[in-house]
Amino acid sequence: MLRDSERNHRTGESESKTHEEPKSETKKVKNLSEFAQTLQLAWNGLLVLKNSCFPTSMHILEGDLGVINGLLKDHSSGGKLTQLKIAQRLRLDQPKLDEVTRRIKQGSPNGYAVLLATQATQGGVGAEGTFPVVEPGLQRRLLRNLVSYLKQKQAAGVISLPVGGAKCRDSTGMLYAFPPCEFSQQYLQSALRTLGKLEEEHMVIVIVKDTA
Q1: Interior CA angle at 85 toward 172 and 67, to 5°?
Q2: Per-position b or e across 35-64, b if 16+ CB within 10 A of its CB
Q3: Contact of 89 with 153, CB cutoff 8 Å
Q4: Residues 84 and 53 sit within 8 Å (Cβ to Cβ)
Q5: Burial of 103 (0-12, 13-18, 19+ CB in 10 A)
Q6: By its UniProt entry, which Gene3D superfamilies does this protein fall under (predicted)?
Q7: Is 100:194 a contact under the CB 8 Å cutoff?
Q8: Per-10-residue mean pLDDT for the chain, 212 residues long?
Q9: What's CA 201's distance to the chain center, in Å?
């Protein structure tokens, strides 16, 4: 009789454990790509450097989605740009970083956006339609190659916005693409809390609108 009640007690215990586990499984985010999926998708396309292009997804960490929609507009088609070409570099020196911080503060709350850029998957294009076709002469490469290039140069990639089209005062700005560094980590505190460490290659994108 004792054995039966012991056995029941044990099965009761194991049952309650199995009930608990699935809950924690659904909440557990295992890597940065999965963390990005919990954020709002802001842009899907190709970052271009020289003859290479890097399929990239950008999810919004903070700031105003309107800035992204306004500055990443393809003026010829009226839709969103599908390709962004890095033409300049910004050295990761403190005075330069202070200038970016100043521009973010100046642009708050509606004139800036900070995004998490991760490797885009071929199928993960969502409502943006099909993935942009790679232009002839461009080699498709993984985002981690761009990240290691910028790390090696100790620089952020810089893009003047908008790309093409008339540059009127109220719709110009800059995009900065930061490889993992002290500056970019300040925007990833919630990801760090969730994951403990950020092992996957990624970039933090800062878009700031020019102030008149």
Answers
A1: 35
A2: bbeebebbbbbbbbbeebbbbbbbbbbebb
A3: yes
A4: no
A5: buried
A6: 2.40.290.10
A7: no
A8: 53 46 55 92 95 96 93 82 94 97 91 96 51 83 97 97 68 94 94 88 95 68
A9: 11
Taking the CA atoms of 17, 23, 26 and 31 in sequence, report the sign of the dihedral they define. Answer: negative
Q: Do residues 112 and 63 lie in contact, with contact meaning Cβ atoms separated by under 8 Å?
A: yes
Specify the 3-state DSSP secondary structure of 200: coil
Give the pair of three-digit tokens for residue 109: 């709350």
Q: Which amino acid is at 157?
A: G
Residue type, 153: K
Record the tokens describing residue 125, joined without a space: 């294009």
Report the alpha-carbon distance of residue 60 to residue 170 in Å, rounded: 22
